[in-house]
Amino acid sequence: MLLDIIENLALLMTLCWLHETLIRNVKGHILLSKICTGALFGLVCIVGMMTPLVLAQGIIIDGRTVILSLSALFGGPLVGLIAGCIAGLYRFWVGGVGAIPGLLNILMSVLMGMAFHYLHQKRSIPLNALSLLIFGCIVQGLQILNIRLLSEKIFAIFVENALWPLVFVQLLSTLLLGLILRNIHQQKNDREALHESEAYLRAITEAMPDTAIVIDQGGNYTVIKSSDKQQFPTSATRPTSKHLQDSFPQIQVELLMQFIHMTLASNEPQTIEYSMQTQIGKRIFEGRARRLDILSGDLPAVIFMARDITERVALEQEIRISAIAFECQQGMLITDAQTRIIKVNGAFSKLSGYSEAEVMGQPTRILASGKQGPQFYKNMWQTLKETGGWAGEIWNRHKDGEISPEWLTISAVHDEHGQVNNYVASFIDISERKNNEQKIQHLAFFDPLTGLPNRRLLYDRLQQALVACSRKHTYAALIFLDLDDFKNINDLHGHKVGDELLCHVSTRLANNVRELDTVARLGGDEFVILLEELKTGKKEAAIQIEHVVSKLLKALHEPYLFNHHRLTTSASMGVVLFNDEQYTPDELMQHADLSMYGAKASGKNSMCFYDPQMQAAVSMSLKLEQDIGRGLTEGEFKLFLQPQVNIQGELEGVEALTRWQHPQLGILGPDIFIEIAERSDLIELIDMEGLHNGCLILAEWAKNPRTANLSLSVNISTRTLYKTDFTQSVTQSLTTTQANPLYLKLEITESILLKDKKKAAIHMQALRELGISFSIDDFGIGYSSMSYLQQLPLDQLKIDQSFVRDLPESTSSLAIVCAILAMAQSLGLEVIAEGVENLAQHDSLIGCGCRHFQGYLFGKPVIAECFEALILDSPPELLNGPR
Ligand code: C2E
Ligand code: CA
Ligand code: CA
């Protein structure tokens, strides 16, 4: 009996050993492992059944319940079923009276094992000695019930001989085999978990670019994994017996050792940055270390991960440098591809006045000054597109509205496909530079004392004037001016006063020429004046110059007031007139200089022309001017009246035309004196004299029914109309003479209106309100436009005699006359034709619709005193009424 038990135990041990070997070798193939385990347990059952405890004939007691129940408990349903089937087949083949309970025992064992397996899987029961004992008891209890199925006799024999040994052996076997199997499975599970975590760890370390090393307390290291052949030339993962000293210089070794000790003392991972000489040069590494919770060899150790961060450090350095460079003295801004601002620096805010938040996301055009047109920006973008860059001067607007010049550089930033991602712009304020440039320019071209152009600029302008004159066929003049006896002022009052005087002189000179003329200072008391765009005729130009010069002489001769002094000085001027490039600037300067000495010689405070003929003409004009003045005071200017008639030939009015009754030269027409008078204030005197005499005539006529309804037209020149007190003077004449303004007509020429239409309109409006009417003289030869005819208070248009002269032959004149008449009719204006000398002209004008006429055909201008006798009493033929 004891021998049988030992034999069974040996069998169980064999089973355990085989099972352990099996699952160790068939790992990874779960199904195969289960089939093999099931087969093994089934076969061991068969062996057990082949060497049973035979209690009586046909009653075989063996360890099958133990083996099969535990196979299902540990191996699960598949293992239990395979083992159960094998054992069941064998038991069936053996047969005998105990076959049925034997097979039931097999079934019961497998089912019980499976039930416990299920409960254990559900974590309802643990697998320990007690649970195994309870499991064994249940299985054995059920086995005893099975045996009870046999005959009473056999069961009695069983109870008597085998019950307690069986219970004892079987329970012991269940406990022993269960614990061993539990251990085997525990080990298997542990092995699998370890394998799994190893796989994870291997994958993680291989995926990492870092080098992993285990370094012990003594500085010995083992490379676990390295992809860096420069740093760790020994093959990766193979343990080495190296020391830190083999790879690093002493100073680094000490540093790293300190770090390792620090890491060993800490529960947290530690980091360090260090550099190392490698085969490709010096590299920078970042090391991260964590204490290993096991010993490496006999010593505590750390796991150390090293990462090459050379590129990253360089990049960070580059970013730091870029950031510092960005915050430079220049204004910087970065935009996206749509030129919306995405970043600016501090200098930008300082220069533009905008904070970063204010411009963020804004288009760059918020900075535009508007000083440069769309074409400028178009060209800029074109260049940027073609070359990827642009640099130049630009005017930008500060937040406070002020605009300033800036030097701007723009670069486009492209991506790898050549698309523009950003624009980077930098700029500096160049206002100061521009100011300096201007100052330098000023110093180079202007006299520092007076601020007038210097010799250099004068020559430049003179050269340009020469070219312009020969191109446009206009006249220009060079006036050389030297102050008379300036040396005395300097000697008597000192240079300070002398300088001050020069400044005053320059101001007076500049104030008495037009803006387009140039006043230059050559040095000392020498000045040069360049007059451009003078009158077209040589004589006219000379007379114009003469007027300017006399104005200048007069202005310079006015006393100068200093603190305690009242100084007077005068100047001598030499003039040269030119209208082509016959002479060079130097020659012209010489001529003017020479003439200036002529003026000095003729007694100072005077001018002298380089050309003697010119000098004569100017002298004569001057003399005439003086004579007009005298004639006016003497009352030598008389009014002549010329009749104006209607279509029936009835007298409607007269035009007053001034004549000069010269004591020596006889009666002089306006062609002799008007032009000269127009250059000075004399014309105003002539006009006002004519107007006043006209008013006297009107007042006189009012008394006589034959003349009471006649109008009187007076010619008024430009200068007179623009006179500030003109309206006042007219009102005064009307009041003193008691003339009716309704019969007074003022004739003005078209050119008058072009100069300052606004001022003319104001004067005309004021006079119109008094009842005075207006006629446009010489109409058709000027620049009449419909708009000014509409805007001015007009009553009459006077067709110029040049159009009448060629009638009726000239079709163009006829067309103009007809057009004027049609236009006047549409504007509600009266039209009068002047210079009508014959009937053909008269008929032709009537044909065009003209209803008012003036000309020799109806009467020549006659002196006012004789008008009544000559015109009213014995009128020309046509004045008697229509033919
Ligand atoms: P105007 O205002 O166009 O005057 C008409 C001129 O044509 C007058 O010349 C007159 O004698 C002349 N005339 C008149 N009928 C005929 C004709 O049938 N055939 C020809 N060939 N000529 C005719 P006048 O008197 O020599 O005056 C010349 C210009 O002098 C005037 O041209 C006027 O502009 C100006 N004028 C005359 N007196 C004054 C005045 O007191 N003040 C101003 N500012 N200018 C005046
Ligand atoms: Ca006239
Ligand atoms: Ca006229």
From TrEMBL:
Signal peptide: none annotated. It is found in: Cell inner membrane; Cell membrane. GO terms for biological process: cell wall organization. Residues 474-612 form the GGDEF domain. The keyword Transmembrane helix applies. GO terms for molecular function: phosphorelay sensor kinase activity. Its cofactor is Mg(2+). This is Histidine kinase. It comes from Pseudomonas weihenstephanensis. The lineage of its organism: Bacteria, Pseudomonadati, Pseudomonadota, Gammaproteobacteria, Pseudomonadales.
